[in-house]
Design brief:
Distance between the termini: 61 Å
Number of strands: 9
Shape: elongated
Structural class: alpha+beta
Strand order of the largest sheet: 4-3-2-1-9-8-7-6-5
Oligomer: single chain
Order of helices and strands: HEEEEHEEEEEH
Radius of gyration: 17 Å
Largest sheet: 9 strands, antiparallel
Length: 109
């Protein structure tokens, strides 16, 4: 199998049970880069990229994952699905609230 690229895992993901996860790539000097994985249960976890991506597999808290298109399937039965349009549920909710507020303000004028 092919090596998983950093670009393939960077971004926002939807956990099948616990909400949203963000995988951020952060430069960490001469050794290369690290990832900061912001998980709804485990909080922010930073690790070297080569600890998270191991050739064609992912490793997070000892769980092994395989990337299949826009989905990561973990060996504990959990899946993460990539949020392709870049909008998280929070940003969508905030935008909807702002639109409703603007509409209400215009109607009140």
């Amino acid at each position: 199998m092919a090596q998983i690229s950093v670009d393939a895992v960077e971004g926002f993901w939807r956990h099948n049970k616990w909400g949203e996860i963000e995988v951020k790539v952060e430069p960490s000097g001469e050794q290369g880069s690290s990832v900061d994985i912001i998980h709804p249960l485990y909080g922010s976890q930073k690790m070297e990229i080569n600890e998270f991506i191991k050739e064609d597999k992912l490793d997070f808290f000892g769980f092994k994952g395989a990337l299949h298109g826009n989905k990561i399937i973990w060996d504990n039965g959990v899946s993460w699905t990539k949020i392709e349009n870049g909008q998280t549920a929070l940003s969508q909710s905030l935008e909807a609230s702002l639109a409703a507020l603007r509409e209400h303000t215009m109607l009140a004028s």
